[in-house]
């Protein structure tokens, strides 16, 4: 399914990013996803999911290497000091 249309690959980074990202994305089964999550609002079936998110830092490391073999660009928002201690 992933090759059936355009893909936008990105790396999310931050404190507790896997847990926070999974909350934003929603449960793997869209029927179990809360309204307001990406899957809860935009997905219908597990096999035709609209988004993927790593379930652990280890999985993320492997997936980042797959999608970004040359590495990711380092970037930090100007708001970073206001968000993180």
From TrEMBL:
Known catalytic reactions: a ribonucleoside 5'-diphosphate + ATP = a ribonucleoside 5'-triphosphate + ADP; a 2'-deoxyribonucleoside 5'-diphosphate + ATP = a 2'-deoxyribonucleoside 5'-triphosphate + ADP
Enzyme Commission designation: 2.7.4.6
Top-level taxon in the UniProt lineage: Eukaryota
InterPro entries with a match to the protein in the record: NDK-like_dom, NDK-like_dom_sf, Nucleoside_diP_kinase, Nucleoside_diP_kinase_AS
Stored PROSITE patterns: NDPK, NDPK_LIKE
GO biological process: CTP biosynthetic process; GTP biosynthetic process; UTP biosynthetic process
Domain Nucleoside diphosphate kinase-like: 1-74
Cross-referenced SMART domains: NDK (SM00562)
One annotated GO molecular function: nucleoside diphosphate kinase activity
Cofactor(s) needed: Mg(2+)
Keywords per UniProt: ATP-binding, Kinase, Nucleotide-binding, Transferase
Family note: Belongs to the NDK family.
PANTHER family xrefs: NUCLEOSIDE DIPHOSPHATE KINASE (PTHR11349)
Annotated protein name in UniProt: Nucleoside diphosphate kinase
Organism encoding this protein: Musa acuminata
Lineage: Eukaryota, Viridiplantae, Streptophyta, Embryophyta, Tracheophyta
């Amino acid at each position: 399914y992933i090759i059936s249309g355009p893909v936008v690959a990105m790396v999310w980074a931050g404190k507790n990013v896997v847990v926070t990202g999974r909350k934003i994305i929603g449960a793997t089964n869209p029927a179990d996803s809360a309204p307001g999550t990406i899957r809860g609002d935009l997905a219908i079936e597990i096999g035709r999911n609209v988004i993927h998110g790593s379930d652990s830092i280890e999985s993320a490391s492997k997936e980042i290497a797959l999608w970004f073999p040359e590495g990711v660009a380092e970037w930090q928002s100007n708001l970073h000091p206001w968000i993180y201690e």
